[in-house]
Amino acid sequence: MEFSELVDSDRRLVILRALEEDAGYSLNESVIQSVLEALGHNVSRDRVRTDLVWLKEQGLLTIEEVVKVYVATITARGADVVHGRATVPGVKRPSPRNR
Asked: Which domains does the chain have, with CATH numbers?
């Protein structure tokens, strides 16, 4: 696996974890970008949107557009990935200590 693929897969797992940890299982793209930055992924809003659409295509989250802002909500399948019960190529598998 190439370096860029490792970074992409980690960033996608971080997004899913953030959604899964939220009380409503849902965050807007601005908050997701801030979470990513806090965890070492300094990415543009466009990159966040691209990742959200990719994760939606995999059935791991849903997206609602509210006043031109994406609001993502994790799906049951996405939560399974966060907890290591399911794997999706392109999303880093969580280590046992991080579940």
From this structure: 3-82 (1.10.10.10)
